[in-house]
Structures are given as structure tokens and as C-alpha cells.
Amino acid sequence: MKIAILDTRKAYLPEISAYISYLEKNGITAVRIYKDILDNINKYDIIWKFTGVDFIGNNNGSVVHEYNSLTVGKLKWIKDTIKKQTNIKPEGRVFLNNEVKAAMNFKDNVPSIIRDMGIAKEFFVQNPNKEYDFVYIGAMEKSRQLDQILHSFKQKDIQKNILMIGRPNDELYAQFKDNKNIIFTGIVNYKEVPKLASKGIYGLNYVPDVYPFNKQTSTKLLEYCALGLNIVTTDYYWVRNFEEKENSSFYKITNKTHLDFESIDKFNYKTADVMKYEWNTVLNQSGLIEFINQIR
């Protein structure tokens, strides 16, 4: 069996590499193909798509639509409704969690599974040699509102620094690039991320408490926990549920424009044990192989 997983290059998708590795171990050929350089997709048994709008099927096989997030920005409800009503009917669907599945609210009988985010094994390392006070991994688009929190590192006499791992939006970079306490790495090879992030003391999980961000799994928080970092986070629905479920203790940011560094240093942290979120375990529990066999 051959599976092609479509990468649009528009989002950071660590699950693609996890899928390919896991499927290969289970005797299934899986490859990443890019939307802008498509080869003959009809030669694959299954086409796997992280769903935007999709009008194109697979003449010789099956299509899977994966909903790993919900739409953000203006008119998000309308955009999700358009996706739901106009997309082709696939042979299978994958949802990030039950919140995403409920929001899409499909009424047909298409087989589906829940596949939450996992952690690459490379993140399960701990580094006693610290170079940074804070690290931040991941998305830095304007909707993340990171400019609010970064002002804390520009204040006079502040000695704390933060390593920002990933590509900042142009406005954010222009605003903070000259501050010695704020270090932007730019795009980093995924395999290098754990080495860099492990040099921090605190993992910053800065997620706006707005839909849909507050209902979605925070991959960066899982990765921080695997690295053994202390978690400093905004307070919202998903993070509260995770903290309680995993019997952990995270510092909650109360003022988004002013970090209380003294309180952060004094807080009694308890980092969650996240070994069960390693990708192989997550994919085993999702029933991925059974799902693939069912739709093919």
C-alpha cells in the first residue's frame, strides 16, 4: 500500500514525519508530497490531506481529510462551514481531538479517528547547561499577539532573556530584533529544535484565550514538558484541563503585558510526565493502522 501525505508548506506539521516513520515500521509506504510540485497523485492508494478546501478526489484510491486545527481569523465560522459543505466526501477523517470533531459536526457515516498531537523522541532530553531564561517554540504569526509579552523583556534593568525558535512575522521581528534580551533563531531544522530549547529554564506557552486556540492541544507545551522545562503559560481551557489531568503545576500569566519575573522564579513547579505522548504511543492508541485498513 502507498500513501501520499500532502504538505501545503503553509504550516508546521511535525505529524507528517511521525506518520511516515510509524507507517514504514508497519509495512506501509508513505511519502510527503508538496502541493506546489504534485506528481501523479493517482498512483497512490490513499491521499492524506490537511484540509482546507478540497474539490479533488483520488481516481484510483481513497482520500483522508485531517482536521488538525480549526480556522482562525475573521469569518472563521463561515470558512469552517464552507469547508464542511463544499469539500468532497472523503473515505476517512482524522480529528485532532473531540473539540475539533464536535465543531465540524459532520452528520454522515464516514469512518473517523481522533489523533492528538505527539512528541518526537528527540525531545526527551534534559540539559543542565542553561543559556536562556525563557524559550518559545513555534508559531509567531500576528494572531498569536506575542508583541504583548515580549515588551516585558524590553523593560529597563530587566536581565531575563528569551530565545524565540521559529520564523517571526515581519512586524514582530522589526519591533524587537535590536533588543539584546530577545533572540530570534529564524527557521530551524526540526531536529535542531530540542538542542536549542533544552538550554532554557522556562518554556513559554503563550496562547491567546480565544477560540479556537484555547481548545487545541499545545504541541509546544508537550515538548517543553519532555525537555523538563518549567512551564509559564497563559490561562485557558485546554491548559487547565491538561494540568489537572497530568497532576502538574504551571505558572499562569496574569498580566499579558508585564511578566512578574520574581513570582515566576519563586513558583513551585511540577512538570508533567509526558512519555505517554511520544508519537509511537499516540499513533498506536489512535487505531491508525486499523483505520487505514478499513478505508482501503
UniProtKB/TrEMBL annotation:
Occurrences of domain Glycosyl transferase family (ranges): 125-272
SUPFAM superfamilies documented for this protein: UDP-Glycosyltransferase/glycogen phosphorylase (SSF53756)
Molecular function GO labels: glycosyltransferase activity
Domain of life of the organism encoding this protein: Bacteria
Pfam families membership: Glycos_transf_1
The protein, known as: Glycosyl transferase family 1 domain-containing protein
Originating organism: Solibacillus isronensis B3W22
